[in-house]
Design a protein that fits this description.
By secondary structure, the chain is mostly helical. Helix content is about 65%, strand content about 10%. It has 7 helices and 3 strands. The two termini are about 40 Å apart.
């Protein structure tokens, strides 16, 4: 079946829902509450968006829905991750994040959260790989900046801003590294 989902390198809430379903089966409201509680400062989606994404994931055979009877309440639907969904999520989880501020803030933090919760692989390895990927990007952009003629003022300004953002990201990744080392040893 061809997937209607974004490529595995996208900033997509589908991966957040798949990640929570890797932890345990849940109903839609519970998934939305988990997102708000654990990743609410990172992801901002409505409950109706959660249900729409769940329908799409089910249509792609990444999750299955099981109706659960409730006494004196309407039935509720519990979502379970399927092997294809688990594989799709694992492929996304094990990639470095693109080197831009939004991707690092949203995608990398989400990957780090699920790596920490699922403990498949070490979070230290994930942080190290992201730092390496970010440093490589910084080096490439630095070389491009050095090669730009002085009279290309706006190109130089744009590239200078990107370099400063990446420098800031590298400092932040150092902070993440220091904070997460203690967290990983607590588990």
């Amino acid at each position: 079946m061809t997937s209607n989902l974004p490529s595995s390198r996208g900033l997509s809430p589908e991966y957040v829902l798949l990640g929570f379903l890797c932890l345990k089966p849940m109903h839609g409201y519970e998934l939305h509450q988990q997102m708000k509680q654990h990743l609410g400062e990172i992801w901002h989606i409505s409950q109706s968006q959660v249900y729409n994404i769940l329908k799409r994931l089910e249509g792609n055979d990444f999750i299955s829905a099981v109706r659960e009877d409730q006494e004196k309440l309407p039935d509720r639907i519990i979502f379970h991750i399927m092997e294809g969904g688990r594989d799709h999520f694992a492929d996304w989880l094990n990639q470095p994040t693109r080197c831009n501020v939004k991707a690092i803030r949203v995608e990398f933090l989400t990957r780090l959260f699920f790596s920490w919760r699922l403990m498949n692989g070490t979070i230290q390895q994930m942080i190290d790989e992201q730092q390496e990927h970010t440093e490589e990007e910084f080096q490439q952009l630095s070389e491009r900046f050095e090669g730009l003629p002085q009279n290309q003022v706006f190109n130089r300004l744009g590239l200078s801003l990107r370099l400063k953002q990446i420098e800031s990201t590298l400092l932040w990744l150092d902070e993440v590294d220091k904070n997460m080392v203690g967290e990983e040893s607590k588990e």
